[in-house]
Amino acid sequence: MTRSLAPTPLLTEGNAIMSKDAPVTDLRSALARLREHQGQYLETDHPVDPQAELAGVYKRVGAGGTVARPTTTGPAMMFTNVTGYPGARVLVGLMASRERVGLLLDSPSPDLARRVGTAIQQPIEPVTVGHDRAPAQEVVYRADDPGFDLGTLLPAPTNTEQDAGPYFCLGLVLGTDPELGHTDVTIHRLCVQGRDELSIFFAPGRHIDVFRQKAEAAGRPLPISINMGLDPAIYIGACFEAPTTPLGFDELTIAGGLRGEPVELVDCLTVAQKAIARAEIVIEGEVLPGVRVAEDQNSHTGHAMPEFPGYNGPASPALPVVKVTAVTTRRNPILQTLVGPGEEHTSLAGIPTEASLSNALEAAMPGFVKHVYAHTSGGGKLLAVIQVHKEQALDDGRARQAAIVALGTYAELKHVIVVDHDVDPFDTNDVMWAMTTRFQGDTSIIVIPAVVGHILDPSQSPAYHSTLPTRGMTAKTIFDCTAPFALQAEFERAKFRDVDPAPFLTNTQTAPPSVWPSG
Prior knowledge:
Elements: E1 2-4, E2 11-13, E3 16-18, H1 27-35, E4 41-44, H2 53-61, E5 76-79, E6 89-92, H3 98-104, H4 112-121, E7 127-128, E8 139-142, H5 150-153, E9 167-168, E10 172-176, E11 183-187, E12 189-194, E13 197-201, H6 207-217, E14 222-228, H7 232-238, H8 252-259, E15 264-267, E16 274-276, E17 281-293, E18 303-306, E19 312-314, E20 319-329, E21 334-337, H9 343-364, E22 369-374, E23 383-388, H10 395-409, E24 415-419, H11 428-437, E25 445-452, E26 473-480
Parallel strand pairs: 4-5, 6-21, 7-15, 23-24, 24-26
Antiparallel strand pairs: 1-4, 2-3, 5-6, 8-20, 9-12, 10-11, 10-14, 12-13, 13-20, 14-17, 15-16, 17-20, 18-19, 22-23, 25-26
């Protein structure tokens, strides 16, 4: 049976009633808020296989993004009858809608970049609480127990039948620089390799990989915690990258800034590390020095999992190994996951990208840039749409300068489209209209060749373009889709009367389909 749970009676936790007006402090309070808004949450007790079927269902219901069609943007979905895991609950798509993220972060969706960008400038440091105040440690499973097995304990799903293995797709890894003591949090690709082992993929330049390399050079393991089922503010804040959050910057302070109160941490039980105190599930462990495994050693598929560009990424031949020491959970925990190339990735990666670009552009040219959208077709990383407001002839050049600032701020950005203030950057049809009517291919494009990009874009490789020296390098392109300032009068959009349609939408009737005469 599938139930749309909005509107419904309010959930309770203890004696506290959580409504849409109550603060979001963890995943459960986030879900309570969604239950109060029609169409934002769906729950099903129909049996589902976590291996490929669960993701296949959500592909149709709400994944969106760069997922192969047919797909759509839809509600978050909770599966409560997971085959092989009695009592388990799996949540997918919590952030797979910009509107839903705005709802959870107390912001209109177009203003999310400003909301999150302000939080960077008003950070609040996390605090450590006692074990008695950490719901994440209500239930404890120790890896030295002979019956311990990650594969049977947690329903890690696969997105497709070609995946290297079961993945924890929303595992927020918390690690500490072994030399300087700085803490960092990042979401990484984590594949279950054995009863107490995971492989971990690090994209080049990730800060926790820097920590791992330092520990490995000293011959020591790197203690980490893997945190799942979190307040969405923690996930969003964790997805910022340098230079906005340079090495040594604790991204948990952004979540604190978003919520106006510190993220609560707790000491792990089996490793010298912290964990998110209100997480649904925490995996404690160590990244082992000098140990590598093939990502698909158990399946031999040659693939990893679907990545944000929409393709199945290749399995890595040699990845570091996490030796698990314990799993701690809340009672009746929720395993939170995502569909790799879906809209949820756009929210996670794109909103921090927008905030970083908005802050940099406002500093460089105050008031000129109105909105930035990290477009879903680039997974929130590869494509940005920048809306500018020209007021003088010099602004023709400033529009292009804005694109250059954006490329310099976010290294993984590949394409930038610049549009005028009368074009909605969040509406792809409007952006394509501007590209069609305010753009000439021989004069409106700027190409910057052979620049560092993103290793997961398959076109960024010597096999695709022989002039590229290695994977992860690309040509970067600026598409100037703005009207020349001197010709603005010729590019003024047709003006319709601004009418309130409400009176015309009451007591309306739907006409039957027209029947056209034949012959």
